[in-house]
Amino acid sequence: MLPLRMERHVANTRCVVEFLAGQAAVESVAYPELSSHLDHALAKRLLPRGAGTVSSFNLRGDRAAGRSFIETLSLFSHLANVGDARSLVIHPASTTHFRIDATALTAADIAEGTIHLSIGLEDPDDLIDDLKRALKAGQKASGSNAAKAAALSGESGQPTATTSTSRPESA
Question: Please, are residues 119 and 12 in contact by the beta-carbon 8 Å criterion?
Answer without folding.
Answer: yes
